[in-house]
Amino acid sequence: MAGPYAGQAWTSAPPPTAVVQTEHMVAGGVAGAVELETETPVSAAARPAGEHPGIDPRLRTRRWIGGGLVVAAVVVAAGFSWGRPALAARDRSHVRVSTEPAPLACTGTTVEERTMSEPVFGEDEPLLPVALVTADMRCTYTFEISNGGSRSVRLQRLSFPVLGPEAGPAIEAVSLEGPGTHGSMAPRRTSFPYSAVDADFDLGIDLAPKAAVTYRLVVVQRPDGCTPKGGGTSFPDIPHLAVRSFGVDGEVTAPGPGIGFLNTTDLNDCS
Predict the structure, then answer these.
(1) What span, in angstroms and rounded, lies between the C-alpha atoms of 204 and 185?
(2) How far apart are the C-alpha atoms of 99 and 255, rounded to whole Å?
(3) In angstroms, how far apart are the furthest CA atoms of the chain?
(4) Is there a single domain that holds both residue 32 and residue 101?
(5) What is the pLDDT of residue 90?
(6) N or C of the chain: less Cβ packing under 10 Å?
């Protein structure tokens, strides 16, 4: 096979090309430049060991840099995913549910500061506001939710156990007033196979850092409820608040002692 110069021959595949040179020649004594591009062969000995012929080392460097950036991005994303629960728990730890000194106010009945039952095995039960259940009672439970952290959190839902429209006690929650309720909101009703034993209220609002919001839950006597005479129901840690941060949900509850409702008449007797 003939090489690029007269009298030069290649007996094997042409050597790799490193540089393209341009030569200017004058042909036939006629003034004028004729550009002739020639390729200068590079011997295998002059090529760095392990380098593939025809691959620009700069391209190889760019590939290494690009691959490194991809790996770094994956590591950062994985670290954030693993750390989200801890970050969410930190935000949630700054959310508080608190009540006023007299959180339960009622009309049509009386509220007493007392225990729900007699002490058992010598243990003293805490004093809490207890409403006596009557047909005409209407009680309002007031509480505050505050965010003492440095980030906004999402208030997803407020839940009150066994106070829903399908629960059994002689009392039920009928409405919630406060931010996210559009003035007043009835408990969410669910369909089969789920039940509405708990009174759930969907909020879906953001609570800014150092901010607080106040809610009022209205509780009345349930006509078809069942609470024996002398029986009652206490709620030591309501409400149960679902909080979302960094895409992770968690729960915050009130610290207690809560509130109670006591049936002292034959109203809603189960017998």
Answers:
(1) 13
(2) 9
(3) 130
(4) no
(5) 93
(6) C
